[in-house]
Amino acid sequence: MLGKGTKSLSSEQIADQIESTGGSLDPFSGNNTIGASLECLNTDWASSLDLLADVMLHPSIPEDVLTIERQSQLAAIKSQKDQLVQLAFRWIGESLCGNQSYGLNASGTQTSVSSLERPHLLEFHDKLLAPSSSVVAIYGDIRHQEIRTHVENLLSDWHDLGRFTQYPAPPQLQLKSNQTGYIHVDKTQAVVAVGFQGTTIHSTDKFALELLQEVYSDLGSRLFTRIRDDLGLAYYVSAYHFAGIHPGVFAFYAGTSPDQSDLVADEFLKEILHVTSHGITQEELNRALAKILGQKKINAQSIGSMAMTAALDELYGLGHENYHREIEAYTRITLDDIRLTAEKYFSTQPHALVFVSPKPPKRPHQVVTH
């Protein structure tokens, strides 16, 4: 609802003001944060900052727009049943984290979203959007002191209205032993995924896990070549890594035919055993490192991307200059680091294996209702 109206401006007036300056306003909400980004011309920075502050601090949450947005979110939740990979990831998250933290569906449920009313959102806004848990990042060809003074005056009356706990205690791993689940879907294809609890954004292990994810997402990776090209078992093969304030998830996944899903699972488990024992090759590491550093250099060309990165890093306690430290950290990762990290996360804790398919796997499993 941010950007859909403030106490002084309607949604249409906000849109007109943004369009008249050729700018853009993008509210966002993620696993750990909520906010908005705004891009504008240098000549319009003052009025744009005023608008951004108004949008963030004084939302009106109009009833008619809320009704539309609520129905849109309910429709999105309903459509999740047709997204096989997302179904698999949600089950893995629930298995690893339980009914908390990243085990929850970020979009909510039909019941929870249906029950949200305007007073709930206003109360949540006052509690959540507080200066003690917020960061403002401004990038561009700017006059620092002039903008600093403007921001300080603009936000001088902004105070904490609630008692929001920024970082609740991390949840304990819910999974005590290997678990296999089956989700029935009326589709011609199937998805197989196996996941492990990962790490946090504050752990240096995230660099090795990110490189591993890139290794297994490469179209020339050994996993892709083995499962898709050599054995013809899958349409696509990849890996997923998410590091959060709390321990995240590392998962392998593939799209396959229902009759071959057990074979794909076997290949995943074989590769997991192999990487924990033998690691990866120098060529694989070099290719993954080049891909990650290349993408970071591309992102660094956008001041919007850099402002977002700096704001989030500062908010998480990593510091606004963390970007440069991370570049160096990636380059220091060795083959031994990769193998030891894989062993730490894939060998010493249980996994969650899930089949999303029109027919159940042959191995023992629990039926999951979604």
Secondary-structure blueprint of this entry?
Layout: H1 11-20, E1 24-29, E2 34-39, H2 45-57, H3 63-79, H4 84-97, H5 110-114, H6 118-128, H7 144-154, E3 179-184, E4 190-197, H8 205-217, H9 222-230, E5 234-242, E6 249-256, H10 261-278, H11 282-299, H12 303-315, H13 322-331, H14 335-346, E7 352-357, E8 366-368
Parallel strand pairs: 3-7, 3-8
Antiparallel strand pairs: 1-2, 4-6, 4-7, 5-6
Count all strands and give the number.
Answer: 8
Number of helices: 14
CATH architecture classification of the domain at 179-368: 2-Layer Sandwich
Highest CATH level, the class of the domain at 179-368:
Alpha Beta
The portion of residues assigned to helices is 40-55%
Q: What name is given to the CATH topology of the domain at 179-368? A: Cytochrome Bc1 Complex, Chain A, domain 1
Q: How are strands sequenced across the largest beta sheet?
A: 5-6-4-7-3-8
Structural class: alpha/beta
Q: Name the shape in a single word.
A: globular
> What Rg do the Cα atoms give?
23 Å
Report mean pLDDT, rounded to a whole number. Answer: 92
What's the short story on this structure?
The chain is built from 14 helices and 8 strands.
Description:
- By secondary structure, the chain is of the alpha/beta class.
- It has a domain at 179-368: Metalloenzyme, LuxS/M16 peptidase-like (Cytochrome Bc1 Complex, Chain A, domain 1), CATH 3.30.830.
- 47% of the residues lie in helices and 14% in strands.
- It has helices spanning 11-20, 45-57, 63-79, 84-97, 110-114, 118-128, 144-154, 205-217, 222-230, 261-278, 282-299, 303-315, 322-331, 335-346; strands spanning 24-29, 34-39, 179-184, 190-197, 234-242, 249-256, 352-357, 366-368.
- The protein has a six-stranded mixed sheet, sandwiched between helices. It has a two-stranded antiparallel ribbon with strand order 1-2.
- β5 (234-242) and β6 form a beta hairpin.
- α2 (45-57) runs parallel beside α7, α8 (205-217) crosses α14 (335-346) and α10 crosses α14.
- It is globular, with a radius of gyration of 23 Å.
- The mean pLDDT is 92.
